[in-house]
Design goal:
The protein has 4 helices and no strands. By secondary structure, the chain is mostly helical. The protein has a single domain, classed as Membrane associated eicosanoid/glutathione metabolism-like domain (Four Helix Bundle (Hemerythrin (Met), subunit A), Up-down Bundle). Helix 1 packs antiparallel against helix 2.
Length: about 150
């Protein structure tokens, strides 16, 4: 358990990177809400058309797909498909006791790749650009998992 201490610089790097990813995932949800409120639409469920404090004048079009809202929703879904694997692989990677510089490059590299993916998606860049940043992040997670597996088997 000595690896899971903030006195361990590898674990500290993981805590920083994992915390940034928590903020990213949660922030993306809030970005979606902000966009829904801004356009008064892009609601996801039929019950969202009930009159309330926020939706004072429900209209059926509010359930229509709104790309401005849906883009944020897709970014959130993409985070939820990728970041949990990072949390798990990163924590296991810490237990494998990697070199600090390797851990920092991989952990912060994943954060940077996800930030670049977010910017590319938010600015409507091509799939190839988004896929490049996805690939970097995915390769990092795969490397950490293989490194950990190799350490555990060795």
């Amino acid at each position: 358990m000595e690896h899971l201490s903030l006195e361990n610089p590898v674990f500290s790097a993981y805590v920083i990177a994992a915390s940034l990813m928590v903020l990213k995932v949660m922030g993306q949800g809030w970005m979606t809400v902000h966009r829904m409120l801004k356009v008064g639409g892009g609601w996801a469920s039929p019950e969202d058309l009930r009159k309330g404090l926020i939706n004072k004048n429900p209209e059926p079009f509010q359930l229509d797909t709104n790309d401005y809202v849906d883009r944020s929703r897709r970014m959130h879904r993409n985070d939820l498909e990728n970041v949990p694997a990072f949390w798990a692989a990163g924590l296991l990677f810490v237990l494998a006791d990697p070199a600090l510089i390797l851990a920092q490059v991989l952990l912060y590299g994943f954060v940077a790749a996800r930030l670049a993916h977010f910017i590319a998606y938010a600015t409507e860049q091509s799939h190839e650009i988004r896929a490049t940043f996805y690939t970097v992040g995915s390769a990092i997670v795969i490397y950490m998992a293989v490194h950990t597996l190799w350490s555990a088997l060795g």
